[in-house]
Amino acid sequence: MFEATTLNKRNQRVQELFRILFLMMTILLIVPVIIILGTLISKGGSIISYDFLFTNPTEGMTAGGIFPALLGTIWLVMVALLISVPIGVAAAVYLSEYAGDNWFTRIINLAIINLAGVPSIVHALFGVGAFVMFFGFGTSILAASLTLAIMTLPVVIVSTRESLQAVPFAFREACWNMGATRWQTIRQVVLPNSISGILTGIILEVSRTTGETAPIMFTGAVFFTPFLPQSVFDQTMAMSLHLFVVATQVPGVPDALPYGVALVLIGMVLLMNSASIAFRMYLRGKKKW
Amino acid sequence: MDNFDFDQRNLDWYIDKVVQTLVFIGGVSAIIFIIGIFIFIAKEGLSFILDTIDFKEFFTSPYWEPADEYAPEYGILALIAGTASVTGLAMIVAIPFSLGAAIYIGEFATGKKREYMKVLVELLAAIPSVVWGFIGLTIMNPLIIKLFNVPVGLNVLNAGIILGLMAAPIMTSIAEDALKAVPDRYREAAEAMGATRWQVIYKVVLPAAKNGLLGAILLGVGRGFGETMAVLMATGHSINLPTSVFDSVRALTATIAAELGETAQGSDHYGALFTIGIFLFLITFLINLTADLVVRGVKKGR
């Protein structure tokens, strides 16, 4: 009674064809990256050692380690976080808890989208024009971190807003009914219930900030400096720029060195991203509502 | 009880107001920053635009020789061609693959497999652009020289593929979100009428998600347009109006990245670089605005 007609069978075959086609496309998207990671590990893995991570580059950056770049990246990321997290969380709280559905909110959203979409080199120009020159910070960690902070602000805002909005509205209503003010509700109910989601977003931002190169090239990161940064007004080396430098600007670099730098950089980024994803999955499993 | 004051302006009330003001400032900061970006790059480019620039020459001359002592030339046509050719090729790579992957992950894959694929795509999107540039330089370059028997492997093909691979994961994520936004009852209705999975996707899901998918593509274009480090390292960075994918080119973004460090503040060259910045800002602004309007169009319709 329910025998498949020829048309049914043909349709089934067409479906199977497309399923396989799209599966191939997905795989083709992923495979090159696995090959790339494999190459980085096989060519750069051998150079990575305790000395590589914790000593200075020597002989015009053709030998030695990457410690100043590693430390510089940590400085840049930390200072950028100190700036962007408070602003980003405040913006997200405003958008999620206070803003109405009106033209003004739309403009803020549009600004956030554009902040994320403006090319990184344009952020660099802004950093040079505003922080290096107009505010007179010079090429310094402060100027570079400010540029990075503004550039990655959308990451914090969007992820924080999502975690705030995931808190059921009934929680807020229950709290208001007890006579709590808006802020009391946010501090005691909304934020505690979304703090882990916010942290996930911050880890993601750290990862983004670590990999950025163009925005720091002219604002605070330098090709080489023999000094480790002492304050936010110093220049510094950075991992991402260091990769660019040893890959393109320095003659006579042994093959393994840039691969090693690339491997450490990509390792840092992927590690933080994986942590963020794992954290998010763990939270989803634990969710009570 | 009759003198109970509902208007209790106690400490909590004032704290509430202060916090409200603070988070409002946070919210407005995004607007301030985007306007600030425009003002500061416009400020640096302004004197060049007013005094030196000949708009017709700027956009139609293929000669970019800002360092020439006697007759510097500021034509960005070749740079526009470089950016356009690389972005164009990147989209030819990224659009089919990202849409295909999004359809597979969103509509065919189920359970754990789907989760794993989503995580992988997210990790791909996290690889920094300078690492992609390095890959173009060290892996793609010799590969292209060997495969196609050409003298230089740093060209449109190299940068286009690199950029396509970079843009595809982000486009996949956004496209998958667009597919997910199509209500399940649409699919159920079609399946109840005997449609196969593919028929459901082709006749129901894709038309319903059309605008969201278009938004994903536009964001990919904007992304390719603004990419700097990967393009700087993989295009070969030589000024050319490309006639084939094996020509080396130079992109708008890469030009700023390569030359800003060696120009004196206030010089014409410096102003010209900021003018390119203004141009990039306006173009990406337009792309993002269009993407936003297109995506919003869907939401209104539902």
Report on the architecture of this protein.
With 289 residues, chain A is mostly helical. Chain A has one domain (50-286): MetI-like fold, CATH 1.10.3720.10. Chain A has helices spanning 6-44, 50-54, 67-98, 103-117, 120-134, 141-165, 169-177, 182-211, 214-217, 239-249, 256-286, and strands at 57-58, 63-64. Chain A has a two-stranded antiparallel ribbon with strand order 1-2. In chain A, β1 and β2 form a beta hairpin. The model of chain A has no long low-confidence stretch (mean pLDDT 89). Chain B has 302 residues and is mostly helical. Chain B has eleven helices and two strands. Chain B has a two-stranded antiparallel sheet. At the A-B interface, α1, α3, α4, α5 and α6 of A face α1, α3, α4, α5 and α6 of B.
Q: Specify the CATH architecture of the largest domain in chain B.
A: Orthogonal Bundle
- Largest interface, C-beta closer than 8 angstroms, per-chain residues: A-B, 90 and 89 residues
Alpha-beta content class of chain B: mainly alpha
Task: Please bin the fraction of helical residues of chain A.
Answer: over 70%
The CATH class label of the largest domain in chain B is Mainly Alpha
CATH topology type of the largest domain in chain B: MetI-like fold
* Average pLDDT taken over every residue of chain B: 89
What is the radius of gyration of chain A computed over CA atoms, rounded to a whole number of angstroms? 24 Å
Counted beta strands of chain A = 2
User: Could you say which structural class the secondary elements and strand pairing of chain A correspond to?
Assistant: mainly alpha
Give the biggest sheet of chain B: 2 strands, antiparallel
Q: Architecture of chain A in CATH? A: Orthogonal Bundle
Would you identify the regions of chain A where 5 or more consecutive residues have pLDDT less than 50?
none
What is the mean pLDDT of chain A? 89
Give the H and E element order of chain B.
HHEEHHHHHHHHH
